[in-house]
Design a protein that fits this description.
8 helices, 13 strands, 30% helix, Glutamine Phosphoribosylpyrophosphate, subunit 1, domain 1, binds glycine
C-alpha cells in the first residue's frame, strides 16, 4: 500500500511522477521531494519556486520544509533567495542534528556551502505581475489567486510517511516575512506512528492553530483523517471569526499511517490524490454547513 496527496491542481504532474516512484517501491522521501520539485520548477506556477512572486521590494524569497515521519527529523528554510528548490535544501537540512532550520542570508550561505546552484528566480510573468500589483498597492494583501503553498504528504510501501512544503508565500509580503510553510507543526508535520499533514492558505492564520500538528494529534486520538482535518480547520476558522472577526483561507491535506486521506478547508480548494488502487486524480473540496463536500473534477476543468 502506498498513497500520495498534494494541495492544488498545480501538483497534478508532480503527483503522477511521485506516484510512479512509490509504485516502483522507491522510498517516500525521494517521491515526495520529486513531487514538490516538479511544481517548484514550473514557472507558470507563480506561488512556488522558480517564477514565484516577489515580496514588496521585488525580491523573491521562498519558504519550504521537509519532515521525515520515521525519525521526526525536519529541515526548513525561510525567506531564502536564489535557490530553485527550497524543498531540496530543507531535505538536506533535515539530516542535521542541529541547524535544521535556517532563514535568509544564513540559508543562502548554507545552500552555497552545500553546492546548490544559485539562480535568478524571476521570470517575465513574475516581474510583470509584481509591477502591475505595485500600481494597485492599496488593495488588501491576500494569497495570490489562492494558489499558494504546494504541500505534499506521502506514505510508501514500507509504511514511512513524509510531509513537505514549498512556497513563495504571501504575494507582496514584507522583506523577511516567513509564513507557516517552514514552521513545524503549523505548515507541516509527519509521524510514522500516526499520520502526517501539510497546509496551504494564509500562514498568519494557520500558525495561530498549529494546524498540522493539531490534525495529527486528532488522528492520534482516534479521528479519521477526514474528521481530523475538518474538525481542526472548522474549529480554527470559528475561533478566529469569534476572537478577531475574520478568518483567511485555510486548507489542509492529511493522511494516516494506513494511507487513508483527509482534507479540511474553509474555502474552495483543489487537491490531487493517487494511491496503490487509484491513479492520480484532481478533486475539488468546498465547505458547506460544517462539512467539506468533495467531488472529482477533470484535469482540464478550470479549478485552482
Ligand atoms: N501558506 C503560505 C504562507 O502563508 O506563506
Amino acid at each position: 500500500m502506498w498513497s500520495l496527496i498534494a494541495t492544488w491542481k498545480m501538483a497534478y504532474d508532480g503527483v503522477c511522477q511521485g506516484a510512479e516512484m512509490l509504485k516502483q517501491g522507491i522510498n517516500v522521501k525521494d517521491a515526495v521531494e520529486k513531487t514538490v520539485q516538479i511544481v517548484e520548477a514550473e514557472p507558470s506556477f507563480t506561488s512556488v519556486g522558480f517564477g514565484g512572486l516577489p515580496n514588496e521590494e521585488g525580491t523573491i524569497q521562498l519558504d519550504g520544509a521537509f519532515m521525515d515521519g520515521a525519525t521526526l527529523r525536519f529541515g526548513a528554510v525561510g525567506a531564502v533567495e536564489n535557490i530553485a528548490s527550497p524543498v531540496h535544501l530543507a531535505r538536506l537540512l533535515s539530516e542535521n542534528e542541529f541547524n535544521c532550520q535556517l532563514v535568509g542570508k544564513g540559508a543562502k550561505k548554507e545552500a552555497q556551502r552545500l553546492g546548490l546552484q544559485q539562480i535568478d528566480l524571476s521570470t517575465e510573468l513574475s516581474n510583470s505581475t509584481y509591477l502591475k500589483r505595485k500600481e494597485e498597492m492599496n488593495q488588501e494583501l491576500r494569497s495570490y489567486n489562492d494558489h499558494d503553498t504546494v504541500g505534499v504528504v506521502g506514505l510508501d510501501q514500507s509504511g514511512h510517511l513524509v510531509a513537505a512544503t514549498s512556497t513563495s508565500g504571501l504575494f507582496m509580503k514584507k522583506d523577511g516575512r516567513v509564513g507557516d510553510s517552514p514552521i513545524i507543526g503549523s505548515g507541516f508535520y509527519a509521524d510514522d506512528e500516526i499520520g502526517a499533514a501539510a497546509a496551504t492558505g494564509v500562514g498568519e492564520d494557520i500558525m495561530k492553530g498549529c494546524l498540522s500538528y493539531e490534525i495529527v494529534r486528532l488522528m492520534k486520538e482516534g479521528d479519521s483523517p477526514q474528521k481530523a482535518a475538518e474538525k481542526a480547520v472548522f474549529e480554527l476558522d470559528e475561533k478566529l471569526k469569534r476572537r478577531i472577526g475574520k478568518a483567511h483561507s485555510i486548507s489542509v491535506v492529511c493522511m494516516n499511517r494506513f494511507g487513508e486521506w483527509g482534507v479540511g478547508t474553509n474555502c474552495p480548494f483543489a487537491f490531487v490524490i493517487a494511491d496503490s488502487n487509484h491513479e492520480a486524480k484532481v478533486y475539488y473540496a468546498e465547505p458547506k454547513n460544517g462539512n467539506v463536500f468533495i467531488r472529482e473534477v477533470q484535469k482540464e476543468d478550470r479549478v485552482d
